[in-house]
Amino acid sequence: MTDTDLMPEIEATGARLVAAREMIARRIIGQDEVVEQTLIAILSGGHGLLVGAPGLAKTRLVETLGTVLGLLAHRVQFTPDLMPADILGAEVLETGADGTRAFRFIDGPIFCQLLMADEINRASPRTQSALLQAMQEKEVSVAGQRRFLPRPFHVLATQNPIEQEGTYPLPEAQLDRFLLQIDVGYPDRAAERRIILATTGVDEALAEPVFDAPSLMAAQRLIRRLPVGEAIVERILDLVRAARPESGDAHPAVRDAVSWGPGPRAAQALMLAIRARALIQGRLVPNLDDVAALARPVLIHRMALGFAARAEGLTLDSLIGQLVGDVMGVEAAA
């Protein structure tokens, strides 16, 4: 299929995305970049890890996305005593009217299309691991049986970076399942003024559906068909391979500072995410600016600094910025 053949579908999807962003902006004020990155994660068919202090509308964003994208959304509040069965579901023994007994499976909240895992790092590793199979394979195994999840299926997890007491760090294997780490910062003064005026009155803006599950899945398929130039592919490979300390292509700063780096899933994530960003911004072809803008959200949770680097005050933010500048010759997104 040629680029010309794709244009009608691209234009129709682009118009829907504009309407979706406008609908989300009714309820989420001053977080345009967060909204864009969250939509990128979903359009790419992946999951997002929202990291930010309490009260920054992370829960509100996920609720609004469920409505605007026309998805069945569930929310799970992760706590230290949460068990895997509380997420996946369980079999219960029921007695029929004729006295016969049989097991019946009761779906857990994971059987939805958009799952909000609120404060995911407060649950034990055993419970966190219950999400691994679901996030990667879109199915779960309960009582020896495979049970498929609704399509599409996305996880948007939230994490509080301030309070670490009573939390469990996410294992590297699970972090790698998140397409993007989306940092949610404080709004500026003008945005915060609009927030307090919009949310403390009698009437509050409501969101309405723009997509539904079939149209969203069609947009996800379209993303995978968008062309990516050979030069952009090579820059993605250069960037990801430069971030691996054990690679022969490793950046000199990475060899000394990083204990482990991103795997091939990071390159896959960048390939999908830059296409989604281009489409959201009304472009057919992604460019180097897309790679630079998404390098941090794709890489930061797939890398870890060594002890010596942390002791010297080095941060992954500065290191990724240096990588983007040296490898691509483009200034990294702030």
From TrEMBL:
Domain ATPase AAA-3: 47-180
Cited InterPro entries: ATPase_AAA-3, CbbQ/NirQ/NorQ/GpvN, ChlI/MoxR_AAA_lid, P-loop_NTPase
Pfam family for this entry, one: AAA_3
Molecular function terms from GO: ATP binding; ATP hydrolysis activity
The UniProt record lists the keyword Chaperone: no
Domain ChlI/MoxR AAA lid: 254-313
Keywords (A to Z) from UniProt: ATP-binding, Hydrolase, Nucleotide-binding
EC main group: hydrolase
Tagged with keyword DNA-binding: no
EC number(s) reported in the record: 3.6.3.-
PANTHER family: MAGNESIUM-CHELATASE SUBUNIT CHLD, MOXR FAMILY PROTEIN
Family from the record: Belongs to the MoxR family.
Entry protein name: MoxR-like ATPase
Organism: Amaricoccus macauensis
